[in-house]
Structure formats: structure tokens, C-alpha cells
Amino acid sequence: MRTNLKSAPALALLACMLAWGDARAAAGTIGGDHRLVRRFVEDGAIVQKGWLEAAVGYDDGSRGRDLRSALTLAFRLGPDVEAGVVLGGLDRRRDPGDRLYGPPLAAAVDASGVGDALADDEEGLGPGVAQYRAFVGLRTGSARATVIGWIGAGRRGDSEFAGRAAGLNTLLAGAGVLVPVSRLWTFVAEADYEGARFSGEQADGRALAGLDWRPTDNLVVRGEAGAGLTGGAPDRMGSISFVFHF
Questions:
Q1: Domains of the chain (ranges, CATH numbers)
Q2: What does the alpha-carbon distance between residue 26 and residue 200 come to, in Å, rounded to a whole number?
């Protein structure tokens, strides 16, 4: 269990206190066009009409790092239905001995390419197997704050990457909060947990905090930074994204 989170909890607490103190300046409840950053899909909300987001992020640990890019498109199909797609890219650097899809790496990984369901398992950009996830989510709150939570399960086949570790059934869970700071700013915090996905891995637990800035009615700039909570998570992580919604 990783416990050295440095200054992340203190910064998150300070930001939360400042946000709560100024939350009365915000008007109205938080709708579906205010979403969690890392767990956009699991956030139990529906966009007003459409959402287009371009994001870059990183995961950094003692034995390597991942640089990620993603394009997310979501749109409303009806009063209570949302559909979408996420397309991603990945630049990965990992040292020998780091665990990737199960067993420790015998050789370094240094590769770039597609980082979504079509990722190249021979290059270590993906496990090369079908993966399934199902969850139920809840969103509730008021003009002061919105609380989000979800719980679910995941399943995948045996890894096709070197070592061919057995795929496992995993528990998924997490929670988040959105707190209006002003008309333009919203404080975002989230924590999530995913059990080990393959034999030999450890669980991935993370905590992040950040801000959502809306300079116009349709444009959003969002960013988060955080730390790993368990042995299967990177030490540090962060992201920034640019959104157009309508």
C-alpha cells in the first residue's frame, strides 16, 4: 500500500475549503455539462446536447511513464440516454522489471501508437484482448455541491502481451465531487479503485483534484493532478483538456 502522497491531500483540502467558502457565488445546480475529468463515463449525467473534448495527460512512476492523448465525443440520444466514443494515443516508456499486464518486463518498452481498443499488444501498448466493464452510477447534490459515485465490475481475457498472464474479474468503485467556486470556476475532486486486471498485477487506486474553468458559455478548460494510493497505480498523474459543448 502506497502511503507517501506528499502534498496532494493538503492541496486538495485547501482547494476544497476555498471552493466551499465561495460556493454561494454560483447560481443554479450543476448539470450534465459539468463532469468528472478522469471518470467522465462513470459520471451519472447526460450532456445537454453534445460534448467534444481533446485531452493530454501523463502517468509517472519510478520505472517509467505514459503520455496519453484522447479525443472524447459524447451526445444526447434522448431524455436519459447518452452515447459516445473515446479515441486515444499513447507514448509509453517502461524499464525492465516494471509490471505491465501481469508479469515483470524482461526488456524495456519504448513505443508510441494507438492507445485505445486497437492498441498494439506486441509493443506493450495494450493487452491484446477484449475487455468488458459494467457499472451503476449515482449523482446527487444542490447548488453548493454535486456528489458522484459508482460501483461495477470488469472482465478481460488472458493477456496476449509477453508472459500471457491470466485475466481476472475486477471490482470497480469510485466517488467524486463538484463544488462551484464562482460563475467561471468549479473545483473537481475524484478517487477511484480498480482491482488487479491480470494475474501478477496489483490494484490501481488513485486520488485527484483540479479545476474546471469556463471562459465562455461553450468552452471549458479542465485540469487535474493526483497521486497513486496502491501499488498498481503510478506515483503521480495529471491531465489538461479543452472542451467544446453545446
A1: 8-245 (2.40.160)
A2: 47
